[in-house]
Amino acid sequence: MDELLGRIWGDLAGRVGGPMSFRLVLQPAVAFILAVRAGVQDARSGRPIYGWAILTDPAHRRDLMREGWQAIAKVFAMAILIDVVYQFVVLRWVYPGEAALVAFLLACVPYLLIRGPVNRLMRRRGPAARSHI
């Protein structure tokens, strides 16, 4: 088990400075843009903070998760595809679990962290500010 975790950690650390490192900026940036757009739409429609609503509203949790997944699915799929190509080129092998972990970290985490605060910020700015974005 220690060998497996050591290999995974080493492989993940090697992605930072290796070839195709542009994706470490590009994919979170795309997720950020999608999250800002969704957060603004949430504020305009008076919807609750996304992450908080997922945690506290079991009646709508499934719909919220589906909506978020639909927004981020293409970025997630692209993150997996790019990581698989990276693994094949650099490691000469493909580790699907690592690809899924990297895709989650690069696509889903930024989206989840940004959407709610954008909603909150837009609500504080008031209705006039929300209508211009």
Write a structural description.
The protein is an all-alpha fold. The chain has one domain (24-131). The chain is built from 6 helices and no strands. It has helices spanning 2-17, 23-45, 50-56, 61-91, 96-125, 127-131. Helix 2 (23-45) runs parallel beside helix 5, helix 3 (50-56) crosses helix 4 (61-91) and helix 4 (61-91) crosses helix 5.
Give the C-alpha Rg: 17 Å
Mean pLDDT: 84
Count the DSSP helices: 6
Shape: elongated
Uncertain runs are: none
Helix fraction, binned, reads over 70%
What is the total tally of β strands? 0
Q: Topology as H/E string?
A: HHHHHH
Question: What is the domain tally?
Answer: 1
**Major sheet description:** none
How much β-strand is present in the residues? under 5%
Span between termini: 50 Å
The chain-level structural class is mainly alpha
Can you give keywords for this protein?
6 helices; 133 residues; mainly alpha
